[in-house]
Amino acid sequence: MVLSPCAETLPPIIMFPKHEEIIKVQFAGSNILSVHQFERADVERIFSVADNMLPYAQRRRMTKVLDGAILGSMFFEPSTRTRVSFGSAFNLLGGEVRETTGFENSSIAKGESLYDTARVLSGYSDAIVMRHPAPGSVSEFSAASRVPVINGGDGSNEHPSQALLDLYTIKSELAERGRGIDKLRIAMVGDLRHGRTVHSLCKLLCLFKDIQVVLVSPKELTMPAEIVEEIRSSGHQVLESEALEESIAHVDIVYSTRIQEERFASQTEADLYRGRFRLNQSVYTSHCEPNTIIMHPLPRDSRDNARELDDDLNDNPNLAIFRQTDNGVLVRMALFVLVLDVVDQVDSHARDVNWYIERRF
Ligand code: NCD
């Protein structure tokens, strides 16, 4: 018998913040909680600052502009690249990082509230980055924090820095093909219901012009209706499908995602969807236009029953996944210098490095 999970087994998806609660970004001193805080000009500002971070991220030059500053890094869900790239970004600017990972190592396990944790940790830090499984939790934490807070992912809600680095990657990949973000055709594939990266990316794309978004997911894991509505009401086109091959035929980018198994009531339920959509070199060659860009927020699930993005694509030059991860450092450095208001001082606190760096480029 095939188990068929019904909508009742999946809790409703609630999006934060509500529109009336959105505080547009000022940068200096701002929390970064949702992509709804940004106008197009803000995104362009972040990207232009990120461009200037390249010599520092590549370790050709070093800067001490955040010498003495401390980042509180609090990750209450598994993370490799988001946690390490936020930490690296802060270190590359000369600052130090204090880290808490997992509830079991934190006083939250003793019943401490987010309010108390925020009051305490913000006394020890100049900025805080936080990941937490509950939608809206980072926002709640930020309300009690005395220093700027950046959302490193709040449950299935949002992941604003990932959306910024994804869009930065989209911009640079398209620039190599001689075009900009407007008129982009993108297919998002996988668990669109729980995937916070695609939630934030869709909202961010609304700031651009004539975007076509093809949403490919099992019917139980479709993009939340209010995000689909937001894309449409911003003047863009949305197509929804359960068929991978035809959906990736006429797009500039295929953005694959992992089934977010940690958001399901049971592993059995998550397993129903793992491996449903698999992009590999043969599917790519048969169905995609030449030079279609392949993206994924990572981690990709490389276990045999998943493989949503096969390792046999590793030598495909259009596979942008590791350019995405490199770009994450640039974008996170840009957020720090803007939020901590040192953007104009980065270069005056800099010098060349003298150690071996050739293999990095
Ligand atoms: C994503 C996340 O945590 O939402 N990972 C990341 O931060 N790059 C995607 C995922 O875990 O599937």
Provide a quick synopsis of the model.
The chain is an alpha/beta fold and 361 residues long. It has 12 helices and 11 strands.
What does this protein look like?
- The protein is α/β, with parallel strands linked by helices and 361 residues long.
- It has 2 domains: 186 residues, Rossmann fold, CATH 3.40.50.1370; 163 residues, Aspartate/ornithine carbamoyltransferase (Rossmann fold, 3-Layer(aba) Sandwich), CATH 3.40.50.
- Helix content is 32%, strand content 14%.
- It is built from 12 helices and 11 strands.
- Strands 8-7-6-9-10 form a 5-stranded parallel beta sheet, covered by helices on one side. The protein has a 4-stranded parallel beta sheet with strand order 3-2-4-5, sandwiched between helices. A two-stranded antiparallel ribbon has the order 1-11.
- Strand 2, helix 3 and strand 3 form a beta-alpha-beta unit.
- The protein binds N-carbamoyl-L-aspartate.
- The site of N-carbamoyl-L-aspartate has 11 residues, from helix 3 and helix 7.
Sheet with most strands: 5 strands, parallel
Helix-strand pattern, N to C?
A: HHEEHEHEHEHEHEHEHEHHEHE
Overall pLDDT confidence: 94
In the CATH hierarchy, the third-tier topology of the largest domain is known as Rossmann fold
CATH architecture of the largest domain: 3-Layer(aba) Sandwich
- β-sheet strand percentage: 5-15%
Principal-axes geometry comes out as globular
Task: Report the top-level CATH class of the largest domain.
Answer: Alpha Beta
* Ligands bound, unique: N-carbamoyl-L-aspartate
Q: Are there runs of 5+ residues with pLDDT below 50, and where?
A: 1-8
Our measurement of the CA-to-CA distance between the termini, rounded to an integer number of angstroms, reads 52 Å
Q: How many beta-strand runs?
A: 11
Number of domains as seen in the coordinates: 2
